[in-house]
Structure formats: C-alpha cells, structure tokens
C-alpha cells in the first residue's frame, strides 16, 4: 500500500510561488452528502468552481465527500483507490479551476477490506500532493446521543503526515474526530504547520455541544488557522450532520462561516494572513515557553 501510494504523489512544490503570498483567500465548503457518488461529485465540482470564482487559492471539502454510507457494508463496496475515477475528476476540477483542494474520501484498502478515512490534498495542477489517513476512530456510545463504531468499517491510519506547502501556508492534515486530540494539533504545529484542516461530518448533538469550542481551542493553543469543512443536514433516515463549516484565525476568531439555516451546498471565504499569524505568535510566544524538560514529547 505504502509504495503504490508514494508513487502517486507528485512533487509540484517547487513551482509554487509562496514567498510573496502572505495574504491569500481560502474557501471552506459545506454540503449534505448522500450515498450517490456521482451526485456528490457534481456538488464537489460545483463548489470547487465557485471557490475559484470568489478568488480562493484553496478550497476545503468535508470528510467523506465521496459518499455517506447508509449501511455498514457500503463503505467497503463503494470505496475507490486514490487513483480511481472519483479522485481523477476532483483532480481535473482542481486543474480546470487552478485551485488547490483538500478533500475527505473513503480510500479503498484491499488488504483489510475496510477503507481508510483519508484527507487528500490536490494541487492547482491537479496533482495529488499529500495524504493523511485518520488516526482516531470514532467509536462512541453516548446516551441519547450518537452511537458509532467507525473501526468496524474503517482501517485506521498509523502516521502523522508532515505539513505540506500550499498557497495558504504550511498545511497540517487531520480529520473530524481528530480535533478532540490536541496532541495531533501540537505535533503538526511542532512540524511547522500554519494552517490545520479538519474535514468533518460531526454528529448533531456533539456538534451543538463541542464543535466551535474545539476548533477555536485548537486554533488558539497552536496559534494556527483552523479550517473545518463539514457535512450538514439529513443524509439518510438514520444519519444527519451538524454543519457549521468555518475558518478560525490564530487568535481564535471565526473569520468565515457557512450558514446553519440551509442545507444547500455553500462556501465561505476567509483571509489567511500569515503576517497576522506571526504577530499572534510573537505577541504571546507560547511555543518558546514550552517545557520539554517536563513534557518530554516536544523535546527535539
Ligand atoms: O463514516 C463515514 O463514512 C465518514 N466518517 C464519519 O462520519 C466520522 C466517523 S463515523 N465521523 C466522526 O468522526 C464524527 C465525530 C464527532 O461527531 C465527534 O467527535 O463528536
């Protein structure tokens, strides 16, 4: 798996003109995914197009943008490899619109049979540039709340992915439930991330209780931008998602947000300002105040 995956990764980074681009626009997307991959693909392509039209250099699409399963067996049935037809079309749309894309998909895993929950980054030339596979499985049983066992349908990843250079900054990859694990955000920041993304399909009860607080906390404590694309609305008779896709700045302010009173596909555009980020980091230099002598995980 690892070899075939590596061979699909291009090396377009030398071609990005990053130094002058201290202020760029990012677009965060929200829609209601269904089982039908063709329909979801059309929605994603339309969102990529409107993000580009609004001047964004990168667009962030939700976790599981390819499909939301209705039954457990459908995850494995419908999952495609990263060089399959769904990602090919996304790559083409990125290229056609000259925009970078982060997208969550079920990534086929032929060995275990259960797909990875993957966040894939595509360059504005349509090249698959970085891939992260969700580390933390959402296996929970909340009274009157969600009961989910992601590990029954999903293979968990086993590595932290190095942040990748994009036009909006050095981007650290995570997914949804990962936002409850500050150690991943800290590690990505330790590896120089300036932006973290959490493509999501949050449940309604946990979204109402925790979503915004978690995202703003991760942004404040890591002093990075946090971009969380999200599914919203009723996917099928058994499942619905909270929505509230947003971009948070390194001070913890929400700078862009999709409407929660509509389940129509939407994007919100916000500025990523790396000068502001540097100012946040120098005003309150928490990362020079770390105590690796006490907390050994950050000793280098
Ligand atoms: O299953 C798929 O096809 C797509 N994956 C998801 O929807 C995942 C795993 S079930 N959802 C979450 O992690 C929700 C986390 C959450 O809601 C919380 O942390 O409160």
From TrEMBL:
PROSITE patterns cross-referenced by the UniProt entry? CN_HYDROLASE
For this UniProt record, the keywords arranged alphabetically read as follows:
Hydrolase
What Pfam families is this protein classified in? CN_hydrolase (PF00795)
SUPFAM superfamilies hit by this protein: Carbon-nitrogen hydrolase
Spell out the residue ranges making up region: Disordered. Answer: 144-163
The CN hydrolase domain, residue ranges: 23-274
Q: Which InterPro entries match?
A: C-N_Hydrolase, C-N_Hydrolase_sf, Nit1/2_C-N_Hydrolase
Q: GO: which molecular function terms? A: hydrolase activity, acting on carbon-nitrogen (but not peptide) bonds, in linear amides
Return the Polar residues bias intervals.
149-158
Q: Does the keyword Translocase apply?
A: no
The answer to whether UniProt assigns keyword Hydrolase to this entry is: yes
Name of the protein described by the UniProt record: Nitrilase-like protein 1-like protein
Q: Which organism is it from?
A: Linderina pennispora
